[in-house]
Specification:
single chain; 8 helices; 236 residues; 7-stranded mixed β-sheet; alpha/beta
Length: 236
């Protein structure tokens, strides 16, 4: 089944995002304001690389970003075309808002699968996302209602897909992979290292770098590695 899947990507406000990555900038030169800017720039780079990979996946139809950030800031020249304002309430509320936007005005005969993708996957490859969506489509053809991809340690969720006409029912949070399976989603078992490598900690960032990140995260790393003490940070 070569059917497009509509995708929701929630992107947290950059100044509140990725608090556990603070150690990644703790030893950078400059003052606290410089390090805070570098932290925000890292969160932005992760999101930009994730969105770029998702836009390049051939099985992705519409792509909706739920955020308080501007489309221009998130994507630059490749900015997302559909942005829904995040009204607050956390990750699950943001996913539901994006799903509601996608389904608004759509008739049952137009229903197609909807998925939610985490925004911190800088090593994601479009072909990984395509393969996961294809495997989910095969499950849906056999009667499954939802499918889920767990992160590298098997506890979190990086991708949740609902069959055409079915609701996503997001359960993101601690232990979300098991929660989604308990809720009826089928766990997908493909070898997708980039799709499974979400970045929450410094160790996660190292893992993503070893796999190879997208250009935004790579540029962030190169900039911090070569910028002399006292030099201004790049744009964020």
């Amino acid at each position: 089944m070569d059917v497009a899947v509509d995708l929701v990507v929630p992107v947290k406000e950059l100044r509140r995002a990725k608090s556990r990555l603070a150690p990644a900038v703790a030893d950078l030169p400059g003052d606290d304001a410089d390090r805070e800017q570098a932290h925000h720039a890292l969160a932005l780079a992760l999101a930009r690389d994730t969105l770029a990979a998702a836009r390049s996946a051939r099985r992705v139809g519409r792509l909706v970003v739920v955020t308080t950030e501007s489309a221009e800031r998130l994507g630059g020249a490749g900015e997302p075309r559909e942005v829904v304002h995040d009204e607050g309430g956390g990750l699950n509320a943001a996913v539901r808002a994006g799903e509601a936007h996608l389904r608004r005005g759509r008739h049952d005969r137009e229903a197609r699968a909807v998925a939610a993708l985490q925004a911190d996957l800088p090593s994601l490859r479009p072909e990984e996302l395509d393969d996961a969506l294809a495997r989910a489509a095969a499950l849906f053809a056999g009667g499954a209602d939802a499918a889920v991809v767990a992160d590298h340690d098997g506890t979190g969720t990086t991708l949740l897909i609902a069959a055409p006409g079915r609701a996503l029912r997001p359960r993101f949070g601690p232990g979300s992979a098991r929660a989604h399976v308990r809720g009826g989603a089928v766990a997908l078992d493909g070898h997708w290292p980039g799709l499974r490598s979400d970045v929450d900690t410094v160790a996660d960032l190292g893992r993503a770098r070893a796999l190879g990140t997208g250009p935004a995260t790579r540029a962030w790393s190169d900039d911090r590695a070569h910028r002399p003490v006292g030099a201004p940070s790049g744009p964020s």
